[in-house]
Amino acid sequence: MSTTRPFSPGDRGPEPSGASGASESGLPATGGSDEGAPAAGGSGGGTVPSLRHMESVESVEPAEVSAGRQVRRLVLEGQSGVVPMARDFARQALYAWGWLPAATADQRAAAEDVLLVVSELVTNACLHADGPDELWIACDNKVIRIEVSDKGTGQPAPRTPHRAGRPGGHGMFIVQRLCLDWGVVRTPGVGGKTVWAELGAPA
After folding, report:
1. pLDDT digits (tens, 9 = 90+) for 90-119
2. With the C-alpha atoms ordered 164, 85, 17, 46, is the resulting torsion angle positive or negative?
3. Distance from C-alpha of 188 to C-alpha of 75, rounded to nearest angstrom
4. CB neighbour list of residue 118: distance below 8 Å, 6 or more residues apart
5. Which of 7, 16, 37, 162 is least surrounded by CB atoms within 10 angstroms?
6. Residues contacting 110, CB < 8 A, separation 6+
7. pTM (2 decimals)?
């Protein structure tokens, strides 16, 4: 069963590393993109600094960065077919971490949620930020964290109000609905951003 996000971004405290808050009303109802609003100040949610700043992870190979947490990194910059590539990479990680093969319907749904969020974040970077640079995915016993970095200057935000029958603009709404929390990390003096999302492990 998919999880529904019980609170707004920013309710779990400030994001380290100069994060900007993920506005839930940053786009007008007539806007056509998930990332058309200018960056907003404020704090994003989350409890973990960006995985990109963990110096111990330097390749696409799995690496331990702390007790109980595993991290994998995939370079997407300059690649073609990045959405299926990112999904395949995430699927391999889920097999390695025991989320797949799923023993129950809830576990299967949780794994599909992870793959859908990966697809939406990478697609959003393709459509609105000139493509993603990197995908990071981390797992501990309770949470999977997904990060997609890009060089874009826009601010991802769910289209408000959301209209299910209207084409486009659903990506960040889907992320908001499926994830425990999500937000944006920006590093002062460095262009681009990292969009992150966290999903709970299946029971």
Report:
1. 999 999 999 999 999 999 999 999 999 999
2. positive
3. 22
4. 86, 87, 90, 135, 137, 146, 148
5. 7
6. 2, 3, 99, 102, 199, 200, 201, 202
7. 0.69
